[in-house]
Amino acid sequence: LAKTTQPISMDSYEGQEVNITCSHNNIATNDYITWYQQFPSQGPRFIIQGYKTKVTNEVASLFIPADRKSSTLSLPRVSLSDTAVYYCLVGDMGSSGNTGKLIFGQGTTLQVKP
Amino acid sequence: DAGVIQSPRHEVTEMGQEVTLRCKPISGHDYLFWYRQTMMRGLELLIYFNNNVPIDDSGMPEDRFSAKMPNASFSTLKIQPSEPRDSAVYFCASSLTGGSQPQHFGDGTRLSIL
């Protein structure tokens, strides 16, 4: 399983764009990159997933360079409610009988200030 | 659609007692995961099932822990006998398939062993 490394914590202010970078030097060919968000007293919630280049949804964007050894989660114009822990995970899609279980790291605690 | 449902939300019991945590996955999801979260160790995968069959229980801490999935809509995690160090938040998650497919988490059971 590919190991991921991300900052333990980040601070930001309301209205700013936040970029959280995750490194995964040992990512395998079949691995996808997935980000989850966790609020206090709740389970993690899927945010976004990608394989290469850029993916965007209504919540965030995910930038993946060509070598795929890192990825950046971008949250546009954060608000206080974006204060949470953000997890970066890599793993395959579980096809062909390979379940490719996911391992959650320590995550990045994002604190958004007014 | 209803999400993953866990019960109870909170459990306080004395050391040595049997504890049973329950989970109802999202209908149609083939994979079910049990996690434990503590401040010290973060989010740990305990066991997961595919089509009601346990696939990987290498994360189960010791023989005091057991998990079953008698049918596609119900799973239990049992601790017997319980110890104070088992105090944690236990999450159940389900996904359509395994691997990097988005996992949908329940709200967790906060377990306190006195």
Q: TL;DR of this structure?
A:
The complex is a heterodimer of chains A (114) and B (114). Chain A is an all-beta fold. Chain A has strands at 9-13, 18-23, 31-38, 45-50, 53-56, 61-64, 70-75, 84-92, 108-113.
**N/C terminus separation of chain A:** 38 Å
What's the rounded overall pLDDT mean of chain A?
89
What is the oligomeric state here?
heterodimer
Describe the largest sheet of chain B: 7 strands, mixed
Number of E-state strands of chain B: 11
State the order of secondary-structure elements of chain B, H for helix, E for strand: EEEEEEEEEEE
Query: Quick one: which chains have the greatest interface?
Result: A-B, 28 and 25 residues
Poorly predicted runs of chain B are none
Give average pLDDT of chain B, whole number: 93
**What distance separates the N and C termini of chain B?**
37 Å
Overall 3D shape of chain A: globular
Q: What is the overall number of helices of chain A?
A: 0
Strand order of the largest sheet of chain A: 1-9-8-3-4
* H/E element order of chain A: EEEEEEEEE
Overall structural class of chain A, as computed from helix and strand content, comes to mainly beta
Indicate the proportion of strand residues of chain A: over 45%
